[in-house]
Amino acid sequence: MLISFGEIKEDREGWPCRAFRWTFQAGRDRLGFIHQHHLGGEWRDSHTLVYSIFLMEEWSWGMDHFWWDGPHCILGLGRIRIQWFRDGCRKCNGEE
After folding, report:
1. pLDDT given at position 43
2. pTM for this entry
């Protein structure tokens, strides 16, 4: 299931995306709010602007912080991951 919210058109020169939007997604392996960009005629999920719960194959316990196309704060509870976006996270930004 995917529910989308209002689109924001991209009109900055040189940007490859045509628009952005927030979605609420519910599926077999995730539930949450995911930011999307419109590129090449299709909507694609962001990997950074995410507030969601994921079900993963691997087990993980505790907090994880890393920077990959933006900050990622993730709490591992076995196979369940809870991810949120926090732009000012010092650990994700490598400041701690």
Report:
1. 93
2. 0.73
